[in-house]
Amino acid sequence: MTLADFSKRHVEVDGVGKTVYVAGSGAAVVLMPEMPGISPDVVRFARWIRDAGFTVYLPSLFGVDGAFPTAADGEKVVRRACVSAEFRAFAGGGTSPVVAWLRGLARKAFEECGGPGVGATGLCFTGNFALSMTLEPAVIAPVVNHPSLPLDDPAGLELGDADAARIRERVERDGLKVLAYRFENDRWCTGQRFAAYRALLGDAFDGRVLPDEVANPEPPPFFRDVVACPHSVVTAHLVDQEGHPTVRARDEILAFLAERLS
């Protein structure tokens, strides 16, 4: 089983229960899966976080845990998520309701692990959730990877106006830094989106852009056929070779977490 080295827990927040896979020791990092679920590539990234000295919390939010879906099955997962009450996939919807549950998970992780705070790392569909989670005071190390929501507004941030204002206030008050990654011509996470983050967060936003040609040319079927562009910097489009730009991005994320959570 792909997740055999993780403990499988049922975590309830405000009466809502979800499966969460946990491994490691040290300060907590909540790693949210990318669409269409907790693939072996996401699990690999979770292990890297664990092996860097953290307790990784990997919640199951959609899809089949531990599997590479076919392109067709992945599309079905996307469609279900887009109409789910938990997610606000399109412009005008504001912050996704599932983020409230994720903040609760961060609180529980902080209670269990201690330390100065919790890291939050989002990927793709959950990319911006890492920023939204900073409304939980325990979250002090947000990493926003190729955020794809809202799907119909390349300059949107998947944030309600009130939440955006509160996040900006917290960044200014507490000196939070936000690390982010995307590929240069990613059609799901555009330069317009990173510009919108910069407008909201100012110098607190560290948005890093990788050239398309360094992306893994043979990603899993969903990313090859549905995503159809360089997108997932540290998972599906990572090239696991020492010194490769995508591996350097992974190492930068781990160093950011270590700096903020030490």
Describe what you observe in this structure.
The structure is a single chain. This protein is an alpha/beta fold and 262 residues long. It is 36% helix and 19% strand. The protein has an eight-stranded mixed β-sheet, sandwiched between helices. Helix 2 (71-83) crosses helix 7 (221-227). The longest helix has 17 residues, at 245-261.
List the helices and strands and how they pair.
Elements: E1 7-13, E2 16-24, E3 28-31, H1 40-51, E4 55-59, H2 71-83, H3 98-113, E5 118-123, H4 129-132, E6 139-145, H5 161-174, E7 178-183, H6 191-201, E8 205-210, H7 221-227, H8 245-261
Parallel strand pairs: 3-4, 3-5, 5-6, 6-7, 7-8
Antiparallel strand pairs: 1-2, 2-4
